[in-house]
Amino acid sequence: MREGQVFEKKSYRKAFGPTADLSDLAKTCVCLANAQGGTLLIGLEDGDDLPPAGQQLDAAEVHKLVQKLSTKSRNVSFGAAVLLTAPNGGQYLEVTVSPSLHVVATTADGRTYARFSDQCQPVSGEDLRRLVFEKSGLQWEIRPVPNVRREDLSPAEIRFFVDRVRTVGKASAFVLAKSDTELLDYYRLVDDHGVATHLGVLWLGTSAQRARLSYGLMAQYVVYDQLEQKVRKATWFDHHLNPAQLLEDVLAQAVELHYSHEIPWGLTRRLVPHYPPAVLRELLVNAFAHRLYTTATDVFIQAYPDRVEITSPGGLPLGVTPTTILHERLRRNPHLALTFEATGLMEGEGSGYDLIYQQLSREAKPLPDVDDTGTSLRVTLRAQRPDPDTLRLLDYLSAHYIFSQKETIVLGLLAQHRRLSATALSQALQLRQEERTRSWVGRLVDWNIVQTQGTRKGTEYVINPEVFAAADLQVKPTLKTIEPHLLRALLTEDLRAYPDSSLAEMHKRLGEELGAHLLRRQLLQMTQSGLVETSGANRNRRYSLVAKK
Fold it and tell me: Which domains are assigned to the chain?
């Protein structure tokens, strides 16, 4: 099993013997407690599923270990340690760490740590404030609702949920083999005492029962005109719909979000939606599934003529930022997300933003703007009319190649911008290291669909001009894709005619579609090679050709 948000492996040497580091183990336990709890397996090396053959653990030493971990941490609750024997005869220890529901767990010296993906990192400053804020919402979904028992829930809603889980078929065969009653228990809709949880009432309750929830699922849809004055509003405050029904009703009533652009397409016209339906659905599902359910704020959908803004309470989960949202896999409400997966509302592996990026790139649309204030999260989609030539190019490539999700995203970005530096592409793809772009563009370069110019940090990616010719697109030439040696010749001729010019003056003469950073880089290379000389500094720097002797 791979390490993740709720699972960690530690070597035998980390817990026992002269190399033991109990402070590091305590830090790991604090991380798990501040997240959703988890399991710590001691005696397994990273990457191994079995302990070393013949490894034996002393029961007395195991008991002492758990006691020492308790003294080295605060607000961390441990389950009973279980000594397990693997098929190869080796023993290892399973320690269960419960989530700290209302307080922040710390080490004995007062340090706070949290789990970010599979990494344990210190928490301070603004992140500590957010961690305290999120503690109020942790485990809201499985808390029992007083005086609402299994038999009090709506039979129609129970039938809806059970039938949907069995029809969608995303659950494992083991889960689908359970009886209806066992399904409700498995998805934590009812607790061990037969009392409905908040999650159970949200899915299976009557309108009156849902209204008793502290901050249940409510939504508002507001439409604005060109002057941003309100022209229409729809609300869902009566609690008569479960999450799946609410999603469908919002999408049905939000007719303004289903408008389309008409684009000339040969002898006909092609309709391109302002917002791809799959993207809208995914963003609404995310707003429902990952919102904070312990704050009195609704999910807002605000439709403007040029954009739509979807705002949900609670901000991003701790460990996720707007610049890492494409790759991080964290859930604020894991049990609610599990029901959304089982009923077909969302994918289980956290691939929501992958899908959003893919769909927008395929339709030549701008990527979403994500604004996290800490207390709310606003995602903005632009209703931008796509460029017809870009759409034709993407259609042509999709008809002749089978692209992965990553490659579709890269192609959409390059087709829209025509040229992107390795740094700009890494930022758009939210990659920490530019070297990782290889897994995104490797096959595109191998197939000669994308060409590279420059080396290392100066690398730039462009669509191969031959692809436009093969697609029979009468694309207007652009200086964005000019090759370095041609740009050097262009600058040489410009400086020969206009010596002692500034960068801004050359940029204006040669065309503003040509990025200033390209001119600056080429001028630097020409200066270093002795072709150009400069005078002045910074914004006052001027360039001239070096006179030939």
Answer: 7-123 (3.30.950.30), 136-385 (3.30.565.60), 388-480 (1.10.10.10), 482-545 (1.10.10.10)
